[in-house]
Each structure stands twice: as structure tokens, then as C-alpha cells.
């Protein structure tokens, strides 16, 4: 029986040992350079200027050699700078604040549910229990068509909601950034569940009279992680097109997807999904270098669709009565955990400091060679990032990630408060979370932000941003009128 | 007449969430009104500017949302407290709103409207099996295609009497017009307690008149009839005619007596006429008067809750149906409804609370209600959206009938009144042809259409 080491983690001494180790490994290059530099300096001082000059002449440099060397250096530098990927800047973004008349308190939601599902009290009970434990607040928003008794999810109403959300958020973005519609080079709109013809991107082009040579894309069916997929697409396009900007619109149109049946697994999205949207302006222009709020550092996409269970865990289908709804399977959390692990394995080496990577490598080697019973080392991502934006998919998702990544309550505060205030707004929730952090005044220059989103398929996508400049508390964010009330304590169960 | 198209039904919630855990208990006067509900219809003529259909409704809905923040009792739901009495839990559930459209214009509609048609402009739903999911207030906004709008408000009488229902609409109008409420939102909801000075151990008998009246109403609940088809007529009496009625109601002999109030005169007039119609011969049928007691109890006008008290008029000694005697009798009964009497009544009711089913207060006698404290014409929604007519109904009508005396639109003189009478259909028709009534040349605003 191997001796069980006593738990030292709470000891202060160990904390300092850890700090020392991290400093040593992370700055190893500098630490090695310093003795070398000191040595060279001492040598130079010892030799004196005359000796250095004679050393120089003995090398017999002639003009050709000097010219060739300089050309070589210039050539290598040029190749390096040309092949470096363009820096993508996030100039600014805008989040949609729905009108106050669209507010849905718990009691109204439950009442409507009762009136619509008159003869299915068990389904109503189920919805009530979900709502009590959901982590949502009393100020989330549903589109007008869902407020009717019974709801009227017509295509017209869905288009109405799309226009309301997307145009508001685009106007807001134009106002914030001073962007002229004619200057947009790339437009990407993502909305998973509503895909009319002509597409939503065509709707935007029509409304704002955008240029005829615009590169427009419309992503649908890609779930809640479609926002980051759009960012990835924009990044790739901006590598190809110099001196351009891209507008990404992320939203989810709730109107056509209000499930009107009574299958329990399909009623869950009704309780959680709410109205929201975001528009983001990305650019690769050098002129935006000092204006932009963030710089895109990495985007990592992981797709677990090859696994059948993962593929079927969020599945849109018809229930026994022929009503279409989204079926969430019971092992959603387990699959999400797996997808996250996969994503972390890829992103870890890109962002983690050397100290963490070394520890991880050593434990991995140790487990493979010495003792498979060693606990796998979970790298401390808090060292790589200052802020975490976990997609507000539901309380369970945030809890799971908080546990897996060993995050503190403050790290997941943005996600929890966004879930409370706006509900699950799907792909745009990450932007509300960043908005929360900015509104609280916690975003400083140089801070790194990690956005993680999950989506049907099953996908786990991450994006890493670095804050480019000091950000003042914004006055026109959707959090402006309520940020002082946050953070609120969200009870486990709200009694309805 | 044009058909009405119902567009949708939805719930309007307040703009700010209610603090959780708030409750309102209901007073004894509230609990007596459990069997009834109120319906109001406000008519507005077409404003000058042409609007898109649905635009005005949207604006009204938004301003109502804003206004509901100050009325948590309206957006709450009914629950029974541990003692088995009704109370309101302020759970922020909202108010039901129905939107409708109708062909034609308001003027045309008003020419040919009757009770059945008018009630289509007000939405009401009976209490559900589970009252916790049942809205106590309903608003219907009906836009007339050729201009004008009708707003119908119905509410459970347990929570509100006509005075505070009209105050609710006025608050909504103020919010639409100016963006804020001019009167303070209702804060208190308690009837005044007995003043300490009166807690005299050797205090003599509490004033029994009111108490006796309420006792007899409770006892008589078996005698209500429910099947007859009722009709409502609205008669407008101009200022000089009401003065003439009041002069008739003043006794010739005693000239130092003050003349009866407009309500007393009109109530007396209708009591006499309706008794004749009902074939009571020389006697007068049983009649109770009902009036708002906010002033008497020194309550703020914004008091939200029931504050109308009933009292029966003694008809034993009134043989010859002379208007002065009748008016005098009514006047005496009205003066019995003083502050002490009411407080004694409240105390008696609190001790003798009828738990299971309170009586239908309008169930047996002819009820003459003075709604002069209700000033519905103050509800101005926009510069040119002023009410041109307001109707009020107390439903269901299960007894002899109602006579509601309402104020007239402004500009017609301080004494002009509109009287809304609900009777079985054939009696209503005969009332319109009654000589005594016609001698005061009323304008028939709403008659009985066949």
C-alpha cells in the first residue's frame, strides 16, 4: 500500500514553493540569459575597446560578405513578417436589450404554460420544477409572438423577431463604432433554428443597402457554439482579404421553436431559451490597432460528431404527436465534459504557461511509466486567463465547468449573472458575459479572456481574446441599468 | 351592426419585477363582494391624426406595462390564507389583455348599441378551478376601423369598486399622456380601525341600522332569480332637468329643508317608477342605496379596495309615492351612513364573517348606487383622446335590478347625470315609455334594440 502523502495544499509554505517553481519555469529563458549577458559584459569590459577592435578586424569581413549577410537578414525578416498571420482586432460589439414589455416573470410563464397545457398537469409540474432550479431571473425576455395565449409562432412573427433583434443590434453597433454600412466587407449571420429564404444575411444586406461585392455568409443549424464558429470563419476570411472588416451577427430566433407538445425532454428548451442577440465588428486594419477593444489570439474548435452518442445528444425531431421539438438526452453533461476535455487538450499547449505544461507532461509520463494510479494533473487555467466566459447554457453546464476547471465563484460570476438576467440567449450569451465584465470595470489592458461554447453535434469551441486597451465602463450596454444590482445570490431552488 | 374580430389575447406584465414575498389581505367590505365583477367601457372618438391599425393599441399596452409597476395588487393572484379567506399574493403575473378590431366608427356604434353589444367590448372570464392562475383584471382594446377606440376594463369586485377601477384607468391615461402618474399610487389598503377614543367599555349599543341591513341581505340570499334576460338602458338627464327633479323632490311645506342631492332625487324618481312597473301597486319595492364612503371615512381618494356601503331604505311609511317623501327617506338613509355607523358595521362584519359563501350584495333588492365619486372623464389618454361616453356594469345581475347614477361628460353642467338602469328586458322597455321619467326629457343614450 503506497504511503498516502498528507495534504499539503493548504500549507502556506507549499504556496510559496509553487510560486517559486512557476516563476522559475515561466521565465527560464530570461533567467538563463542573465548569467550569459553578465558573463559577456564582464568579458567585454575586461578586454577593453582596443582588443575588441582587433578581434573585429581578425574576422576579415569584406563588403560582399557584409552585404550578403544583411540581405539574408532582411530577406528572413520579410518572409517572417509576410507569413505571420494578420492580427484580427475586435473593434467593438453590441448586445441586444429587448424592450421591457417582452419581460416574462416566472408566474406569467407558468400561467401560460398551464393555460396551454390544460390537460397535462404533469408536464406543467415538470416545467415548474425546471424553472425553479434553472438559475434564471424574473427579467428575461421572450419575443412578442410567444406572449399570446396560445402562442402564435408564424413565419411572419419569426421574421418580425429577427428584424427586431438584428436591426436593433446592428444600429447599436453602427452607433458605437461609427461604422458606415457601405464599409462592411464581410457579413456573417448565425442563427441556428430559423433559416428562411432569403437568408437573414440577405435581410441585413437589404435593410442597410450594403455593397454588392460584400462577402456574406449565413450559418444555420450549428447550435449555441455557432457564434465562435462565425468568429473563426471571419478570422480565416480576414487572412485572405487585406485591409477589411467583418461584421458577425449572432442570435437565436425563439419564435418558431416554442415547443407546443408535452414530451418532457423537449420542454426543457422552452424554459431556458430567451431572446437576445449580438453584433461584433472584427477588422484586420492597422488603423484599428489602438482603437480595438480586443485582439483575437486563438480559436480552437473540437467536434465530437464522430461518436454516435455525442451526435444524438441534442436532436431535433418530432414527438409522438408530430410536434417538432429539440430532444436533450440525459447524458448531455457527460458528453459536454468529454468535449471540454478534448478542447482543453488542444488549447492547453497554446495558452498555458510553461510551468503548467511541464507539470502536466511530468504527471503524464509518470502515469504512463511509473504508476497509472496517479491522479491526472488538471492544469490550472486560472494562470492562463484572467476572465472566463462560459456559455450560459444552463446552471448544470456552468456548475460542471466550474468543477472541471476548478474555477472560483468569481470566475463564473459573469456566466451565472448572464443566465440570471438574460436567460440562455444561445450564441450571443458569450457577448453578454463579456459585457458584464466590462460593465463591472474588471477588464484591464492585457487581460486574457477565454470564451467556451458548446453546441449540438456535439461541439466545443473556444476563443481566446486579449484586451487591447483600457476599457471604461460602457454607458450603452444592456447591463447599464441593472449592473449595480449584481451580483445577486441565486438560490438553489426558487419557490414559485 | 358590424362584427367584432378578436385579434389576440396576451398577458401584460409590469416593467419592473415585484419584490417577492408581498401579500395583500382583503378587508371585510372586499370579501362581501366576492360574487360580483365590474365592467367598464370607455369610448374615445377618433383623434385627428390617422394611425396605422394596431399602433394605438401598442402604445397603450406599453404605457399600461409602465403603470402596472405601481399596482402590484392588480398583477397578483388570489390565494386563500390560513383562515380560509381570500388574499392576494403579489407574484407579478400580470393582467390579461385582449385586442380586437371592429368595422365602422365610434359614433355609428354608439347610435345603435345595447347591452349585449356593449358587453362584447369587455372581456371577462369566470374564476378557474384553480384561482391562482386566474387573472382578476381584464382589459380589452377595440379599435374602430373608421376611427375611435373603446377600452373595456373588467375586474373582480373582491379587489376593486367602481371608484378605484376608474382611478386605475385614470392612472393609465396619465401614464400614456405624460409618462408618469399624477396621483400617488395606492399604498394603504386597510380600512380605518376603530378610533381609540371610542373604545369605551360602557359604550352603548353600536348603530344597528347598517348592521341590520347587511344581516337581512345575508338572510335573503335564497330569493334570487337567475334566468331572466336583462337589458340595460342609459338615460342622460341634462342639468336643468336634474334641477327640476331636485325641486320636485323638495317638500313644499318645509322651506327650510335643504333640497335633495341629485342622487337622492334621481334615485327616488326611479324607485317610484320601477315600483310601478313591477306592479307593486301602492307599495314601494324594497330598495337599497349604495354609495362611496371614502370621504366619510377620511380615506385618501387613492384608496384601492372596496369602500361602498349599502343601506336599505324603509318604505313602510311611504304610501303615496310622492317624490318629496321618497327623496327625504333616501336622504335620511344616506345620512345614517356616517363614519361611526360604518365603523360599527365593519366591526360587526369582522366578528360575524361569513366564510363559505358571502351573499350576493345586489341579489334581492333594487340597488340604487351613487357612482358620483367615480370621475371617468378624467381619463384623458392623449391630447385629443378624451372619453366621450363611459358605461358601467355590475355583474351578474341576479336580483330586481340596478340603477347606477354616473356623472356626465364635462361641459354639460354640474348637475347633469347619466343613469344606467338594468332590468329584465320587458320592464326596461316599459321604463323608457314611463310618463314620469319622460317628463324630465332624458336623452336615451342606450335603449333596448329588438
Supply the key terms.
heterodimer; A: about 500 residues; alpha/beta; Peroxisomal Thiolase, Chain A, domain 1; 9-stranded mixed beta sheet; two-stranded antiparallel sheet; 11 strands; about 15% strand; globular; B: about 450 residues; alpha+beta; Chloramphenicol Acetyltransferase; 2 domains; 7-stranded mixed beta sheet; 6-stranded mixed beta sheet; 16 strands; about 30% helix; about 25% strand; 3-ktacl-CoA_syn (chain A); acyltransferase (chain A)
CATH architecture of chain A: 3-Layer(aba) Sandwich
How confident is the prediction overall: mean pLDDT of chain A? 90
What is the 3D shape of chain A? Answer: globular
Percent range for β-strand residues of chain A: 5-15%
Residue ranges of chain B: pLDDT <50 for 5 or more in a row?
A: 198-204
Shape of chain B: globular
Q: How many discrete structural domains of chain A?
A: 1
By DSSP (H or I, 4+ residues per run), the number of helices of chain A equals 16
What is the structural class of chain A?
alpha/beta
CATH topology name of chain A, in short, is: Peroxisomal Thiolase, Chain A, domain 1
Order of helices and strands of chain A: HHHEHHHHEHEHEHEEHEEHHEHHHEE
Succession of helices and strands of chain B: EEHEHHEEEHHEEHHEHHEEHHEEEEHHE
Major sheet characteristics of chain B: 7 strands, mixed
Give the total of domains of chain B: 2
Main sheet record of chain A: 9 strands, mixed
Q: What's the CATH topology label of the largest domain in chain B? A: Chloramphenicol Acetyltransferase
Beta strand % of chain B: 15-25%
Q: If classified by CATH, what would the architecture of the largest domain in chain B be?
A: 2-Layer Sandwich
Helical proportion of chain B?
Answer: 25-40%
Please state the CA-atom Rg of chain B, rounded to the nearest Å.
22 Å
Q: Strand tally of chain A, please?
A: 11
Amino acid at each position: 500500500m503506497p504511503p498516502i502523502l498528507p495534504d499539503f495544499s493548504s500549507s502556506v509554505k507549499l504556496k510559496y514553493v509553487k510560486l517559486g517553481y512557476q516563476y522559475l519555469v515561466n521565465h527560464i529563458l530570461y533567467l538563463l540569459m542573465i548569467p550569459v549577458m553578465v558573463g559577456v559584459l564582464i568579458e567585454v569590459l575586461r578586454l577593453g575597446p582596443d582588443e575588441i577592435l582587433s578581434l573585429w578586424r581578425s574576422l576579415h569581413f569584406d563588403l560582399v560578405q557584409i552585404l550578403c549577410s544583411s540581405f539574408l537578414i532582411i530577406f528572413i525578416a520579410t518572409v517572417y513578417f509576410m507569413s505571420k498571420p494578420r492580427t484580427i482586432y475586435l473593434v467593438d460589439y453590441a448586445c441586444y436589450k429587448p424592450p421591457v414589455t417582452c419581460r416574462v416573470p416566472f408566474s406569467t410563464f407558468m400561467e401560460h404554460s398551464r393555460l396551454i397545457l390544460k390537460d397535462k398537469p404533469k408536464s406543467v409540474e415538470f416545467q415548474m420544477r425546471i424553472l425553479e432550479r434553472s438559475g434564471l431571473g424574473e427579467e428575461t425576455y421572450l419575443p412578442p409572438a410567444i406572449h399570446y395565449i396560445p402562442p402564435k409562432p408564424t413565419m411572419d412573427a419569426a421574421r418580425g423577431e429577427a428584424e427586431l433583434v438584428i436591426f436593433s443590434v446592428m444600429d447599436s453597433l453602427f452607433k458605437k463604432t461609427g461604422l458606415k454600412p457601405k464599409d462592411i466587407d464581410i457579413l456573417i449571420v448565425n442563427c441556428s433554428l430559423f433559416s428562411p429564404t432569403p437568408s437573414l444575411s440577405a435581410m441585413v444586406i437589404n435593410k442597410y443597402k450594403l455593397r454588392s461585392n460584400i462577402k456574406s455568409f449565413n450559418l444555420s443549424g450549428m447550435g449555441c457554439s455557432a457564434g465562435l464558429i462565425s468568429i473563426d470563419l471571419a478570422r480565416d476570411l480576414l487572412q485572405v482579404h487585406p485591409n477589411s472588416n467583418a461584421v458577425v451577427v449572432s442570435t437565436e430566433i425563439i419564435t418558431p421553436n416554442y415547443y407546443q407538445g408535452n414530451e418532457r425532454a423537449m420542454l426543457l428548451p422552452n424554459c431556458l431559451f430567451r431572446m437576445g442577440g449580438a453584433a461584433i465588428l472584427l477588422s484586420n486594419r492597422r488603423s484599428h490597432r489602438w482603437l480595438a477593444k480586443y485582439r483575437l489570439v486563438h480559436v480552437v474548435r473540437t467536434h465530437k460528431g464522430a461518436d454516435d452518442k455525442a451526435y444524438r445528444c441534442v436532436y431535433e425531431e418530432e414527438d409522438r404527436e408530430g410536434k417538432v421539438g429539440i430532444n436533450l438526452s440525459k447524458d448531455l453533461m457527460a458528453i459536454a465534459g468529454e468535449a471540454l476535455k478534448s478542447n482543453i487538450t488542444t488549447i492547453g499547449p497554446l495558452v498555458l504557461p510553461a510551468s503548467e505544461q511541464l507539470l502536466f507532461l511530468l504527471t503524464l509520463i509518470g502515469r504512463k511509466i511509473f504508476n497509472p494510479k496517479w491522479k491526472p494533473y488538471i492544469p490550472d487555467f486560472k494562470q492562463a486567463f484572467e476572465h472566463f466566459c462560459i456559455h450560459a447554457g444552463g446552471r448544470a453546464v456552468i456548475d460542471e465547468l466550474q468543477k472541471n476547471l476548478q474555477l472560483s465563484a468569481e470566475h463564473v460570476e459573469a456566466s451565472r449573472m448572464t443566465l440570471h438576467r438574460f436567460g440562455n440567449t444561445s450564441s450571443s450569451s458569450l457577448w453578454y458575459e463579456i459585457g458584464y465584465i466590462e460593465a463591472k470595470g474588471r477588464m484591464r489592458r492585457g487581460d486574457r479572456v477565454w470564451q467556451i461554447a458548446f453546441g449540438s453535434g456535439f461541439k466545443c469551441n473556444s476563443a481566446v481574446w486579449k484586451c487591447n486597451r483600457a476599457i471604461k465602463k460602457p454607458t450603452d450596454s444592456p447591463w447599464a441599468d441593472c449592473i449595480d444590482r449584481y451580483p445577486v445570490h441565486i438560490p438553489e431552488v426558487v419557490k414559485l | 351592426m358590424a362584427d367584432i374580430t378578436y385579434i389576440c389575447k396576451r398577458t401584460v406584465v409590469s416593467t419592473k419585477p415585484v419584490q417577492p414575498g408581498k401579500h395583500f389581505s382583503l378587508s371585510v367590505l372586499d370579501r362581501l363582494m366576492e360574487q360580483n365583477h365590474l365592467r367598464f367601457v370607455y369610448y374615445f372618438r377618433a383623434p385627428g391624426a390617422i394611425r396605422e391599425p394596431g399602433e394605438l393599441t401598442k402604445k397603450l399596452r406599453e404605457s399600461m406595462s409602465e403603470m402596472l409597476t405601481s399596482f402590484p395588487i392588480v398583477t397578483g393572484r388570489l390565494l386563500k390564507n390560513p383562515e380560509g379567506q381570500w388574499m392576494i399574493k403579489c407574484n407579478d403575473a400580470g393582467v390579461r389583455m385582449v385586442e380586437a378590431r371592429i368595422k365602422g366608427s365610434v359614433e355609428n356604434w354608439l347610435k345603435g348599441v345595447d347591452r349585449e353589444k356593449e358587453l362584447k367590448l369587455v372581456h371577462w372570464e369566470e374564476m378557474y378551478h384553480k384561482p391562482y392562475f386566474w387573472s382578476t383584471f381584464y382589459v380589452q382594446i377595440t379599435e374602430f376601423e373608421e376611427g375611435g377606440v373603446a377600452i373595456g376594463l373588467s375586474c373582480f369586485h373582491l379587489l376593486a369598486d367602481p371608484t378605484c377601477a376608474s382611478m386605475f384607468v385614470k392612472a393609465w391615461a396619465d401614464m400614456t399622456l405624460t409618462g408618469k402618474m399624477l396621483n400617488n399610487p395606492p399604498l394603504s389598503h386597510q380600512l380605518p380601525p376603530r378610533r381609540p377614543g371610542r373604545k369605551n367599555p360602557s359604550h352603548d349599543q353600536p348603530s344597528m341600522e347598517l348592521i341590520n341591513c347587511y344581516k337581512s341581505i345575508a338572510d335573503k340570499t335564497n330569493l334570487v332569480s337567475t334566468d331572466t334576460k336583462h337589458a340595460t338602458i342609459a338615460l342622460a338627464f341634462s342639468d336643468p332637468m336634474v334641477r327640476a327633479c331636485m325641486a320636485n323632490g323638495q317638500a313644499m311645506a318645509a322651506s327650510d329643508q335643504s333640497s335633495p342631492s341629485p342622487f337622492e332625487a334621481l334615485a327616488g324618481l326611479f324607485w317610484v317608477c320601477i315600483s310601478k312597473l313591477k306592479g307593486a301597486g301602492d307599495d314601494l319595492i324594497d330598495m337599497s342605496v349604495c354609495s362611496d364612503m371614502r370621504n366619510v371615512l377620511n380615506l385618501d381618494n387613492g384608496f384601492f379596495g372596496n369602500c361602498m356601503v349599502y343601506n336599505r331604505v324603509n318604505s313602510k311609511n311611504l304610501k303615496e309615492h310622492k317624490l318629496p317623501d321618497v327623496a327625504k327617506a333616501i336622504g335620511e338613509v344616506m345620512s345614517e351612513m356616517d363614519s361611526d355607523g360604518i365603523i360599527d358595521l365593519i366591526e360587526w362584519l369582522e366578528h360575524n364573517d361569513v366564510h363559505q359563501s358571502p351573499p350576493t350584495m345586489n341579489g334581492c333588492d333594487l340597488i340604487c348606487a351613487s357612482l358620483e365619486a367615480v370621475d371617468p372623464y378624467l381619463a384623458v389618454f392623449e391630447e385629443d383622446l378624451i372619453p366621450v361616453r363611459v358605461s358601467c356594469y355590475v355583474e351578474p345581475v341576479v336580483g330586481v335590478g340596478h340603477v347606477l347614477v354616473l356623472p356626465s361628460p364635462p361641459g354639460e353642467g354640474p348637475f347633469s347625470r347619466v343613469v344606467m338602469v338594468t332590468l329584465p328586458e320587458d320592464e326596461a322597455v316599459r321604463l323608457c315609455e314611463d310618463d314620469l321619467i319622460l317628463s324630465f326629457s332624458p336623452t336615451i343614450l342606450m335603449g333596448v334594440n329588438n
